[in-house]
Amino acid sequence: MRQFGLLSVSLLSVCLACQAQPRTAKKSEPGAAAATPVTSGKSALDKTVFENYVRHLFVWGPQIQVKVSNPKPSTLPGFQQVTVVASAGNASQEETFLVSADGKNIIRGVVYEVDKNPFAAEQERIKTDAEPSFGPADAPVKLVIFSDFQCSFCKTEAQVVRQTLMSAFPTQVRVSFKDYPLEQIHPWARPAAIAGRCVFQQKAPAFWEYHDWIFENQAQITTENLKEKVLEFAKSKSLDADAIGACIDSKATEADVNRTLAEGRLLGVNSTPTMYVNGRKLVGQLPWAQLKSVIEHEIDYQKTHGDAKCCEVQLSSPVTK
């Protein structure tokens, strides 16, 4: 697992004006006028002030790009929500802050509403319609994997997902794959992702054969021989190798890879593998027992708290499902 080296702190409330606490003017003599408070003019509602503050908070130097969103209404009375996204290459980190109405205090964290799923926001952001997937579309558990074909940890996780998970939950889990090549450290990961999308574009079910093949042969693949190896694979699976070669050369599917990279950055993915189980973020290669426990919990949860329809009265019809 590779991670973006950023400092992290626990949930806290901090005062932006703590370096400039209100001070009181001295009385020159008995009966002098009441002291006038002197306050700082800084406000977290000022984007420049906010950026400078969080750069100091997280030790984000000039090599890291920081984008501060416009304040928007928060579910917490008296506070507005501000999102900060820091990025450097493929690495990114998103932080949510709540800012008091006067701009003097911020809270780092997420406000949960008890009548909503705590992972609803992540579920809404993750789109899987155009992604390689297997498992029933109506499965109660949706597992989405952001992965890198050159990542050794991803290889191990992929074997668990493709073998153990499929056997344990053949009908209860739907798995979707998202390309997330960390090209700064893995030189052939992006070309491999583009090639995989070329296979997927030509014959969708063949993608999973490509997925298993490239992880299995990870140690033998280099930047120089990747295309040759992929074309050998295509021929062995009776795919149109010439069309796939042309697709690789023209980078016809690069937009698909860029799309999943952008989606991952918005979610704050900064290492591979990163999985989402019904929106719940799981970072790194997980032991099977841990992943199995999370999936079983979600299956049980969906039985009583899922979105299944209840209490409908309909006329029976052979065309009604």
In words, what does this structure look like?
With 321 residues, the chain is of the alpha+beta class. The chain has two domains: 41-111, Roll (Nuclear Transport Factor 2, Chain: A), CATH 3.10.450; 120-296, Glutaredoxin, CATH 3.40.30. The protein is built from nine helices and eleven strands. It has helices at 47-58, 120-125, 152-168, 189-202, 206-216, 226-236, 241-250, 254-267, 288-305; strands at 13-15, 65-68, 72-73, 79-88, 91-100, 105-108, 133-134, 141-147, 173-179, 274-277, 280-283.
Topology readout:
Blueprint: E1 13-15, H1 47-58, E2 65-68, E3 72-73, E4 79-88, E5 91-100, E6 105-108, H2 120-125, E7 133-134, E8 141-147, H3 152-168, E9 173-179, H4 189-202, H5 206-216, H6 226-236, H7 241-250, H8 254-267, E10 274-277, E11 280-283, H9 288-305
Parallel strand pairs: 8-9
Antiparallel strand pairs: 1-6, 2-4, 3-4, 4-5, 5-6, 7-9, 8-10, 10-11
Helix pairs in contact: 4-5, 4-6, 4-7, 6-7
